[in-house]
């Protein structure tokens, strides 16, 4: 429950300031870049540890690619966040169009929800795309803030539900 409350508070701080969203977005790009570098180093070491394996060169190339891309992200986090934002917008638009077409073409129960989901995705994607590249400075931070709030609420509700379990169920 405590983690849920902290995540809700942090998510609200992120959503409360555009400057904070920009900093969160930049921090995420840095973190993501360093994770890729670490993963690339581990994969490269794995390739050399298993050099008799037939997939040695593929493993080695994948590790090197991770390292190179990780350094590119760390060296240019602003360009990375702007590019990633455009990809997110395109994903939302094309995924939304697909959902709308699916909801119209196929007959199934509650397809209205899929149609609504598709329409919302298209609208969000277009909104991000219209304000691109400036939206690249805040969109990822906004999404992370929203995710933190919903994650916090889910953990809080899970904690409250677990608190109300009978004592016998808690020990099992």
- Multimerization status: single chain
Beta-strand percentage range: under 5%
Number of helices: 7
Q: How much helix, percentage-wise, in residues?
A: over 70%
State the low-pLDDT regions, or none: none
Terminus-to-terminus distance: 20 Å
Mean pLDDT: 83
Total domain modules: 1
What's the helix-strand series? HHHHHHH
Question: What is the number of E strands?
Answer: 0
Spatial extent as radius of gyration: 21 Å
General description of the model:
With 172 residues, the protein is mostly helical. The protein has one domain. The chain is built from seven helices and no strands. Helix 2 runs antiparallel to helix 3, helix 2 crosses helix 4 and helix 2 packs across helix 6. The chain is globular, with a radius of gyration of 21 Å.
Brief digest:
The protein is mainly α. The chain has 7 helices and no strands.
Which SSEs are present, and which pair or pack?
Layout: H1 2-16, H2 18-49, H3 56-75, H4 77-105, H5 111-130, H6 139-163, H7 167-171
Helix pairs in contact: 1-2, 1-6, 2-3, 2-4, 2-6, 4-5
